Amino acid sequence: MSLHKARIKAFEDILNKDVIDFDQLRKLAFNGIPDEKGLRSVVWKILLHYIPHEKDARESTLKKKRQLYLQFIDEIIVTPGGDADHPLNISPDSSWSTYFKDNEVLLQIDKDVRRLCPEISFFQSATEFPCEKVVNSNGMKRLHKRVEQSVLKYATLERRGLGVAKLSSEIRRSDSLTSGDYVPLNEGCEAHWEVVERMLFLYAKLNPGQGYVQGMNEIIGPIYHTFANDADKDNREHAEADCFFSFTNLMSEIRDFFIRTLDETESGINYMMDRLGSCLRSHDPAVWDRLELQELRPQYYSFRWLTLLLSQEFSLPDVERIWDSLFADEKRFNFLIYICCAMILLVRENLLNGDFASNVKLLQNFPPMDVSLILNKAAEIASA
Amino acid sequence: MAKKTYDLLFKLLLIGDSGVGKTCILFRFSDNHFTTTFISTIGIDFKIKTVELRGKKIKLQIWDTAGQERFHTITTSYYRGAMGIMLVYDITNEKTFDDIVKWLRNIDEHANEDVEKMILGNKCDMEEKRVVSKERGEAIAREHGIRFMETSAKANINIDRAFSELAEAILDKTAGRDADADHARIAVERRPSRAPPARACCS
């Protein structure tokens, strides 16, 4: 049996047990999850605590969660109204005022999901399993419709002959805020970016203290991509619900990175950047000194690295491989710090010879590199 | 001494609401290309371009910032060092224009008093979707005594001009300060690669 096949079998053996040996699964996943047989999809769901360790309980958990998600869509994506309510109602309890406030959040989400992973065509393509309630609602539940810009172009009064007046008006609707290929699909279909838009909107509505922050799209993207490409049809069909809850669980661990008022706390992003700084200083004082001397602050590059779990620094397959290790990390997200530190060490010669500008550029546009090289280096740092 | 590659270094900053085209403007200026396939800027991004003005080689170090509120603590820390700030709105989006006032207040709070400012109304190629007239842009700029231009990163309208005008305004101010800028640069280059002990032992 080839090494690769043996790895697949090792995963299957663990997953088929009545109760999963979580430590064993974590150790195995840490070294990468095979792309085959939807393994990554199921292992991520376990590592992100979405599905239980007990094999028997999985089915019912999934069923319950998937149903709950449909309920969210029903209850949260609604058009306001009612007998006594109208768009000009200034009462703060008016469902219309909430609706307009929500649309501001939606506008930001809409901008961002239309520029998610532009290097691959996946998010622009149609999903196999559109949400029936939404795509057959005559546009009523389509979120992007709510923030579509419409411009009243002109209205002219034409008079021909005796008193025959013809009012011709034209209302033009812009295709989208950002041009490009992220166009909404017709009734009955929807693109993957529309699905991501819905999940982020529901997340923002259900987590009002946090709402939507730019970058969350880059966190949900790889999860949804993995789930929506599952080998199992049933799992693909419910990728949206499964992704929503897995994303929510992941966010519960990293959401403080996204909250400005928590920047200085122990779970905030500044603390993470400091930790990366100390890690670098202890492993390569020469590079650390050099960057200090150039006043090249960690915020210039590591803010993005850490907040987005490196999702903007590498191609999607590499991000997925990196996330195998991140999710399998017993002390999430310590290993993230080590990976970031490894990245810096691997370009140390350039950094030691480069000036400020070339060094910022290098770190902000990390050169393509075999990701296993980075992960091995990170493991070396972790065990040091 | 090595041959100088530039005479002056100007630090510029691009700010404005999310999605107004800051990254596209910068990309058009630095690489002379336009693409709609830009991911959203998280935190801060950076480009360099050297231009020649009045016989001087000027290195522009341009910082591109994220538009959303969350990133303000990260991005406002760059205001202080900036010599020029470009404030961008989208002529097809009313809110981004309304927010200009907010951004100006931000500049007042965080930037140097003598920072050169410029307001850009971007996406002026999309005339059919325009909701902010050029006159309104001019009016708000006049009110605050700031330069104004309408630009299009897509159609390459006024992009180079905007950067040169801003650089020129800074040049007018800095004319007498060449020596200082030079001094700072050489000092950095001559520092030994190892930090002095005082720095090494602090934590």
TrEMBL record, chain A:
InterPro entries given in the database record: Rab-GAP-TBC_dom, Rab-GAP_TBC_sf
SMART domains in alphabetical order: TBC (SM00164)
Xref: SUPFAM superfamilies: Ypt/Rab-GAP domain of gyp1p
Annotated TM spans: none
Domain Rab-GAP TBC: 34-330
Keywords, ordered alphabetically: GTPase activation
Signal peptide (UniProt feature, chain positions): none
Protein name: Rab-GAP TBC domain-containing protein
TrEMBL record, chain B:
UniProt-listed PANTHER family: LD44762P
Gene3D superfamilies (alphabetical): P-loop containing nucleotide triphosphate hydrolases (3.40.50.300)
Source species of the chain: Chilo suppressalis (Asiatic rice borer moth)
Family statement: Belongs to the small GTPase superfamily. Rab family.
Protein name: Ras-related protein Rab-10
CDD domains in UniProt: Rab8_Rab10_Rab13_like
Statement: the UniProt record of this protein carries the keyword GTP-binding: yes
Protein keywords: GTP-binding, Lipoprotein, Nucleotide-binding, Prenylation
Superkingdom of the organism of origin: Eukaryota
